[in-house]
Input
Amino acid sequence: MKLIPVDNAPAVVVCNTCRFSKEERDDPAGRRGGALLFDALVAARAADPAFADVAVQAMPCLFACTEFCTVHLRGPGKVGYVMGRFAADAEAARAILEYAAHFAASDTGQVPFKQWPAGVKGHFITRTPPEGYVVE
Output
């Protein structure tokens, strides 16, 4: 394993080796769901300046293999989230980035439920404390 430095700023880190779905490892063209979701996130971010404050990054395996198409939302001093069970498409990418924009604008990473896009509801797997903190 080699660690690659990235900006310490709000980011959606995509598991680019995630399964396509619960049943299928790859799509009919042989691409993994995580790679397709990464491409959809990059395209959605490029198409909307509202998402400029959230980086999209990829890495192999977030170890959430039973929860296909997973992402880790993180930012300095913020509670992080792992979400999964997404379709590898533009609609899911937009919902993830809409939530991530609210996350980036928040002080602690907590986003009021009324601001959650419908496309992320039911997709949360874990909440992670920021480095050096726990949540009370």
The mean pLDDT is 96. The domain at 11-128 is CATH 3.40.30 (Glutaredoxin). The longest helix spans residues 90-105. Residues 69 and 86 are 5 Å apart (CA to CA).
